[in-house]
## 1
Amino acid sequence: METIKQALLTNWHLMRWIRLVIGIALGIHAFQSRDAASGIVASFILFQVITNTGCCGTNGCDLPNVKKKQ
């Protein structure tokens, strides 16, 4: 539980703030216009804000190479 709280409250950089503003604005627009497609996009962007993920920058979508020991 502590790691979830730590992930939500730390590492707030400019791109994360921009995604938050865009997600909220798009969510408001989706609610007002009753547009499901905008709501889905807003949900996806807000999910990126909550989890602090995204494809911005070099190797943004690259997964770390972690090998499991057997």
Note: Residues 27 and 47 are 12 Å apart (CA to CA).
## 2
Amino acid sequence: MKVFDPSALKTRIDELQKLTVEPDFWTSDNAHEVNREISLLQSRLDKIESSQNELLELEAIAELLCEVDDPELNSEFYARSSAMAKSIKAYQILVLLDGEYDSGDAIMTIHAGAGGLDSQDWAEMLYRMYMRWAESNKFTVKLIDELPDQEAGIKSVTISINGDYAYGYLKGEQGVHRLVRISPFDSAKRRHTSFASIEVMPVLPDSVEVEIRPEDLKVDTFRSSGAGGQYVNMTDSAIRITHMPSGIVVSCQTERSQHMNRATAMQVLRSKLFEKTLRERQAQLDNIQGEKRTVAWGSQIRSYTLQPFQLIKDHRSGCEIGNVQAVLDGDLDELIMSYLRYMKTGKLQNGSDR
């Protein structure tokens, strides 16, 4: 189905709405997913129809301006034209977000790399950056698990980012992020390089089957750490689940009850196992096609240089930004969009082919 095809959108909405009137719909597992898809498609359709109506009105104003000299009307025409151009540009982004799970929520995990306090501080800076980005884009963020360090920074943190197309926007952030700066923890004020890795996974619909056998799980309970409510830190409510065949470990300690923490941890485990399966499948395809990719700690996707000069460079799309502080404050849109365009078109930021 094409993103900008109103008739296809209407047909799909009608198909989904027919499902909602079936007697057992509201007790089915996919009721939430169907309603969400209807909402997304209706939003697309409304934007298309609104743009079409606005275009007709602008054409009428343009014809009128050819006959009369009205400064006020002329000012209105350019103001509305500019607003419409921005609206269309924003909507065109949906063409880049056509992956199967792009429209859904995301789970992000940030791990500090080798480098001690500098890398832990860098992990916390990245955490703050994505929180600011989510806030500016009206996404809801929920803390799932955090492992702070007593001296500085965080060793790891897992969050869910909820909102339309959260996963689509953030999927390209997965990988190793490299920071070069004068270390605030070095009394000699020497330049240090720090690394942090980021995992991004889709929050899977209930209809997606991921086989998890109970006998493959090792479940541990422990007392929640850090800030919490009246009872959060007084009982062994935190959950750590180890999936023994894969070695994947997930934790949740932010909910009030052990049951809720377990449910959240299982959701994260499903997403991690699913992402692992996709990654292995892609590796097999790359091997068959003869494509060799380095997936290692040193293969950073993006570098953030604070000293001796200021520059952020995405090593995949070629996008470079000199205003480092703005990016660290959450202004990630240019980096995110350049990567999505690169993946869709195969062209680097400078226009050359990959």
Note: The longest strand covers residues 191-202.
## 3
Amino acid sequence: MVLARTNLTLPKELLHDVDEIAGPRGRSRYVAEAVAARLKRDRLRRAIDAAAGSLIPPGGRPMTRDEVSALVEELRSEETD
């Protein structure tokens, strides 16, 4: 993995909390993992929004956003069982 240097401005209290968990030497990795997790969640939300109404279950009514989200969560839990 190629790394790139950047500067972030964080609230002082948040930085303190991160350092308590990750330590000042683990800060970059902790923030990178948090950002990666947020990106994954945001991409999933975008896909759910784009697919809302496109799945038609038996009965012929398009699925709502919440129904699509519940289906995705159900499918995810099957992968980890």
Note: Helices lie at 12-22, 27-51, 65-80.
## 4
Amino acid sequence: MDSEVNRDKLVTDLKVVIADAEELLKATASHAGDKAAAARLKIQESIDSAKVKLADLSEAGVYKAKAAARATDDYVHDNPWQAVGIAAAAGVVLGLLIGRR
């Protein structure tokens, strides 16, 4: 679960970096010169590549979440009384924890 949280944070951070880089490219668009144009082109290619990788990473996360949901659904359908027992036990534990405060 820690890796999922870290991945989600990484995705969020990368989105911010990409947005900032695109904003920087727009702000420097009026600067002339071959070196500036080449740098902007290289940065734009890097941004496009990062967007593709970010989309793949997000898609992988969605796929894993759907697989986990399917596995949970299958387990509950195969073992309904065990699922009810687990839910009841979790409710008791949460109730005790909340009641202690």
Note: The mean pLDDT is 81.
